[in-house]
Each structure stands twice: as structure tokens, then as C-alpha cells.
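Reading group handout, session on sequence-to-structure problems. Before we discuss, look at one worked example. The prompt was deliberately terse, the way you'd type it at a terminal:

> structure Peptide/nickel transport system permease protein

The input record follows.
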Amino acid sequence: MSTATDHRPRLRARRDVVVSLSTVVLLVTCVVAGHLFLDDTALRPNSALRLLPPSIGHPFGTDHLGRDLFTRVVKGLALSLGIGVLTAAISTVISAVLGICAALLGRRVDGVISWLIDLSIGIPHLIFMILLAFTVGGGIPGIVLGIAFTHWMSLALLVRADVKQIRDAEFILVARGLGRSSLFIACRHVLPLVLPQLLVGFVLMFPHVILHEAALTFLGFGFSPQTPAIGILLSEGMPHISSGMWWLAVLPGLALLLLVLGFARLGDRVRTVLDPATSNG
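And the output record:
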């Protein structure tokens, strides 16, 4: 009886991961399929269809230029997903490299990387992102680099702490005694042990990246006004809310919120399963 009771939290946590993962896969599949199969002609201005409310023909209504809002939202979410995957991957790689180097390469390297982390954390994210995006020149490269270089610090600290706990382990000391280089030790012994932390960090970072991408495009950085980015849709729709045309801002915002919450919930569930205190309890 006690054994069955002890396994219930683990089974429940794994079931939650499956449910969350299935939800995210369904959302992503719908967005990608819509991006591929929705007709781009719906993105062209049509003065006869200006500011129509939601209907069967236009589930999200139309905007001030007569463009189908549902098509623009789906295209914008697909763009956010692409930017989110690339940006979160870059941030995760930066976190892994700097976190492992800080823990394995001695006090001087650790001091320099710790100073860099403290400096980066001390700069407000939004200001730092705008500065980097403006410096690079906007567009997808500006948004990707601007967000990637402002989201690696927390995960790097976690990786650094994890590696410090295992750097004096017997198998690490044996590898050093055999003359193995720090690069070999990091790739062969350390990286596999921190991969769960990196996976959780990537998933948890993803919704933040999407939100900050929307914030940058909302403020006018990155894309032209014709690009169907979620931030641009929100920026265009906000002035019309007071006129009763709520769908122009509310529906894109709800779509973004649904996607972000799906990934955030998945990250929390994966972290619960991979947490040793939970998975071994």
C-alpha cells in the first residue's frame, strides 16, 4: 500500500507532463498548419471589408484595412514561434557555455563571468533589448539577438551552481588525473548531467521570449507595420478599443496569452518531473 501511495505523485506529475505536452503540440500544430494553408490574399487590404466584427467568414473580424484578423493572428503566432525557438536555443547555449566555464575553469574565469552576469542582470531587460535591437538594425536578427543576450543569466547561474556541486566528484577527479582536458570533461561528463536543467530552462524561457518579442514589435522595433506580428496587431488594435471594436486587440492578445500559458505550464510540469526531490520521492 505504501509503495503504491509513494508512486502516486510521480505518476500524477508524469500524467500532467503528457497532458501539457499534448496541449502544446496541438497548439503548435494548429498554428503551423494555419500558417502553411491559410491564403495570403486575406492579408491584402480590402476597403469593402473594413472593421467587420467576428463572424463565420471572419472568425476574428477584420482590421482597419479590411484584412482578415484571424489569418494575421495565425501568421503572427507562427512568426513568434520561430523567433522563440531560435532565441531560446541561443540563450540556452550561452547559459550552458558560460555556466560550465565559470564552474570548471578556475576562480578568475568564474569571477569574470559572475561579474558579467551581475552587470547584465542590473540592466533593465526592455532597455537592453531595445538598445541591442537598434544597434543590430532591427528585423529578425535584431529581435533575436536583443532577446537572446538578455535572457541567459538566470539559467547560467543555475548551471554554474549544478556544475560546482559535481566538479569534485570522483569520476571528474579521475578524468583530470588521466590528463583529460577541461573541454573533454565538460562535453563528456558535465554536459549530460546538466541537460535536464537546460531542457527545463529552454521550455521556461520560451514564453518569456515570445512576450518580449511581442513587446518589441508593439513598441515599433523589428518589423514593418505590414508584418503580421502579434505586437504590431496589438499596437494597431489598441486605439480602436474605445470605439467599441474590441476584437482588434482582445482576440490577438488572447491568442498570445493561450500560447504563452501553454508553454509556461509545460515548463513547470517538466521541472516537477525532473526535480530529483519529486521524481525520486
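Points for discussion. First: The chain has eleven helices and no strands. Second: Residues 8-279 form a domain with the MetI-like fold fold (CATH 1.10.3720.10).
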